[in-house]
Amino acid sequence: MEKKMRFGIKSKIIIGYLIVIVCLFIAFIVLNSQISSLQKERNFIIDHDIEVHDLTNRIEKHLLDMETGQRGYIITGEASYLEPYNSAASSWEKDYNALYQLLNNNPNQQEKLEKIKGSIQDWIEAAGEPTIALKKENNTKELQQFFEKDPGRQYMDDIRSQFTSFRNVEKKSTETRATELDEKNQKIKIGLYGLLLFVTLISLAIAIVLSNSIVNTIKEVTQTIKRITASKGELKGRIKVRSNDEIKDLGIATNALLENIEERNWLQTNIAHAVTMYQGIASVDKLAEKFLFTVSEMTGASFGAFYVREENDKGDLFVKQAAFADRKGDAGRESFLIGQGLIGQAALEKRTLVINDVPDTYQLIASGLGDVKPKSIFIVPVLFEDEVIAVIELASLHEFTVLEQELISQVIETFGLTINGVIRRMEIARLLKESQAMTEELQAQSEELQTQSEELQMQSEELRMINEQLEERTKDAEEKSFELEAAKEDLEEKAHQLELNSQYKSEFLANMSHELRTPLNSILILSEMLEENAAKTLSEDEEEYARIIHSSGKDLLALINDILDLSKVESGKLDVLLAEMNMSELPDQIERNFSHVAEQKEVKLKINKAQDVPDIIHTDEKRFQQIVKNLLSNAFKFTESGSVTVSIQQVANHRLTTAMRTVDTDCWLEIAVADTGIGIPKEKHQLIFEAFQQADGATVRKYGGTGLGLSICSEFAKLLGGWISLCSEVGKGSTFTLYLPSLSKGLVDYEKVNFAYEEVAVSVEEAVEEAKPEAEITEVDHPVQPVEPSLQDDENVFQDKRVLIVDDDQRNIFALKTALAKQGMTIMTAHNGIECLEMMKNSEPFDLILMDIMMPQMDGYEAMQKIRGELKLVDLPIIALTAKAMKNDREKCLEAGASDYISKPLDLNQLFSVMRVWLVN
Question: What gap in Å lies between CA 352 and CA 382, rounded to an integer?
């Protein structure tokens, strides 16, 4: 059945008002529409009729001006009289057309207007234009003849009569419209009075209906309440309200109040009965039986069990003390631990459980005719001082109502005190018996205690002496703590001094690098130019001298770089820049860099790359290339004949050690450089990886070198998460193997890498021998020929270019000026930044600037900033040249305004390549 729609008092009043407002709104809309219609008709009469009369008068005025101008010109002969004539002749047709458009809804008037137009045109053609033309020809005779007849007067009289007739018709039309407007106004007044009367009647009807609805409903409720009051406490009667409004809500609320009062009376009566029931009971089992019987009778429960807490070795155990409707003693389990089952969980959480969806396996309720499944289970814990001392479980054939649950909960609130009192009384009786037996035992024990008291007194004296010794040891410990604190401060001071020493060492190396590179720059440039012998002025011996000088300079540069790299590694300031590296290009790079070395020494170069090597790995490509080049350089240096073999493969999974597996990496690579050279004694294997160390003095004398290469390679390998192992035998050759992880997720833990190195180094020789036959090797035998730069291209780019060299060292200026002049460039020089700025302000523009960094008065950084900032030369190429090749020098130069950066000593091919790029761009 559909729910009856609610229609409250407020809604009734609002709807009544809404109906009245809607009626008023409709009346307003109708009235406004009529008033708007009247307004439009009134405006039409005012605007249309006035405009028609105005245009008619203007046309007559134009005609009068034409007649006056014509006669004035004919009489006087002055051309000024023709101005009003001509003006009117050009204007009357415009006004005529406007008037004709206004009368588009009145064809009769338009027809009269066309006749007027024809008459005006006839006058102009018959009297106006001909007489003016005769006057202009000074034909007085024909003028006299024309005015003797004067046909123009007849045209004018006709036009005036036509205009009079036209105005009379318009006047009558205006009067007709005004009359119609008055009639409509009268009808609107009558309609307005009718609407007001209709709205008034509707409002009265709504008010009567609403008031009767509210008053009648209130009377019904009042009479029902009086009947209930007269019933002398009987609360069975209920209020019935037919309307669906606030009065019905009042009736429902009153009925709910009566039901609540009735339920409270029932609840209080049963609680009072339950409380008086268990007074005077002295045992827990009797109390439990009486309670279960009474509660089952009140709630209609058909089954129940009563459990009381007892303490034992396993903890708190709840034991069944009584049961209701127990058949053969199987009403529930005999005992349970707290938290065991639903009843144990209720005891643990101290909350009541009501279960209405009882499973089929639950205990059945027995009767004379059979067993019945209960529909609801009620488990309630009994608390005393916030501790569960008993649990009651009831089962019923019907669901426990909220009122029954509340009855049990309120009875249980005080029942805990009763159970505790009974248990206490039983405990007191038991303790009384035990105390009598213990009194005798205490008397015997008192004598033993007296003996023990004397022993304790002796022990306390010993403890006092021990305490004094402990105090002395505490003082000693405090003194040692102060000494340790002083030692800690001393260590911190030494650490600070070491940091300062490291800083001074770095600055010293930077300055020494600058001082060594500056003269070395001139040596390399000039020796290279002498070696080329472009003018053919040197003998073969002199060319050989130049080559030796150039080679020695490069060796010195490599030594400087090695010392700087080793210093950075030791101080921990060497940056590792991880990025993607293309391993597929590595064989070509090795072939390109070392094929000429192999040809010179007549040693065969073999490059083997396994197919399982990934194309891309993540590492620092610069450091990786430096390690590989150093290992290959050593292999060629110490190999007089035979071959140098490079093997590149991925470390197989079964060869990965436990420590290697702990490193978070994509894969492990193995790059082995094997040679057939002189070999290294086994006792020297660790020594050669130390700085400035080689196998023996004979090696240094025969092959040269500083002993830094392998030390730097070893440190670089550790920084990249890997290591280098050695397998060598004197007279047969050596194999240096680089193990390296792909660091796609960042650098690895250095301690893990060290552990991996120690674990693998023990059996590296066996691992290498086992891995070689298993890997699929691909030989690379396609050498890449280096591409030589075209000298003709350089000459075309450098010819007639103006270059400014800014350097405080005359040796560098001379070397650079000589080298650049040979390429056809015009060279200007400055000795510091101030001279550079002056020359740029006072001379012709330069195509490129070679800027040294460390100069007196104004260094290269400041000079470049002023060129970019003050002189606004943002597009001028500036190549920074510096011998202080330290960390972040390149970034500092580019931030100061340099276009590019080259470190000293300079490589002319590199310098020309960079210059060519910027000059072309």
Answer: 10
